[in-house]
Specification:
Layout: E1 2-3, H1 4-7, E2 13-22, E3 25-28, E4 30-31, E5 45-49, E6 54-62, E7 69-73, E8 85-90, H2 92-111, E9 115-121, E10 125-131, H3 140-152, E11 157-162, H4 164-168, E12 188-193, E13 197-200, E14 215-222, E15 227-234
Parallel strand pairs: 1-4
Antiparallel strand pairs: 2-3, 2-8, 5-6, 5-8, 6-7, 9-10, 10-15, 11-12, 12-13, 14-15
Helix pairs in contact: 2-3
Length: 236
């Protein structure tokens, strides 16, 4: 299976074919749909068949055993035979907002220099949980100003690849304390925000920080003596 979202996060349509369809969902030869993971929701899409019928992909997951990407359809969707051709059209507006929020969360981890203990995002915003050093205080207005300053710099965002061994030699790149990158893999994907950040990530991102637009810090919550949750939202 070709995972096109890793090659071009901006591709919106794809001609592909069915590999397998059963009660668990639909597996395609190639896909644009990002599967749930890393705090980013699975993509939604429309599948158009040669006869004009359309089916809705309401979620996308990765099978834990086969590692194949499974597209989840409505319970009453017709079963499609292997080899059936179709066109996949991504729910682009939702995906693009995920990309904007995901890149913004990377910027948030630049602004707040502390270990990340958790995170999640939606099409409207997201949050990161931080394990703060003793005595460190968070000021919402200062964080919001710093985030928007990085957005306004319109920094290029790019993908790099590294090995597990190389990543182990640079532990400072791993900001997440609760999840360890798959160091056993021959290649590990990194997201670089030019001049300010480089960290392992399998999610989809915008090409430049300027695409994020204005960001709001909605609230900061205490999740323990040192653990603080910072919630952000896209202004538009």
């Amino acid at each position: 299976m070709s995972e096109q979202f890793n090659l071009d996060a901006y591709q919106r349509t794809l001609d592909t074919r069915v590999l397998q369809h059963d009660e668990h969902g639909l597996v395609l030869a190639d896909t644009l749909c990002y599967p749930l993971g890393g705090g980013q929701p699975g993509d939604r899409a429309t599948l158009t068949l040669a006869d004009g019928r359309s089916l809705t992909v309401h979620d996308t997951r990765r099978d834990k055993e086969s590692r194949r990407i499974v597209h989840q359809l409505d319970a009453d969707a017709p079963m499609l035979a292997p080899g059936t051709p179709l066109t996949l059209t991504l729910d682009w507006e939702r995906r693009y907002r995920h990309m904007r929020v995901h890149t913004c969360l990377h910027l948030l981890s630049v602004v707040i220099k502390a270990g990340v203990t958790g995170g999640n995002l939606t099409a409207d915003g997201g949050r990161l949980d931080f394990d703060l050093p003793e005595g460190m205080q968070l000021e919402p207005q200062a964080i919001e100003q710093a985030l928007n300053a990085l957005v306004a710099r319109d920094l290029p965002v790019s993908v790099k690849m590294t090995s597990g061994a190389a990543l182990q030699a640079q532990p400072e790149l791993i900001k997440t304390m609760s999840v360890t990158p798959p160091l056993h893999l021959p290649e590990i994907r990194l997201i670089e925000i030019d001049g300010v950040d480089l960290q392992p990530c399998g999610g989809t991102h915008v090409a430049r920080t300027g695409e994020i637009g204005r960001v709001l810090v909605k609230k900061i919550e205490s999740k323990g003596a040192r653990n603080k949750r910072v919630v952000i939202a896209l202004a538009g």
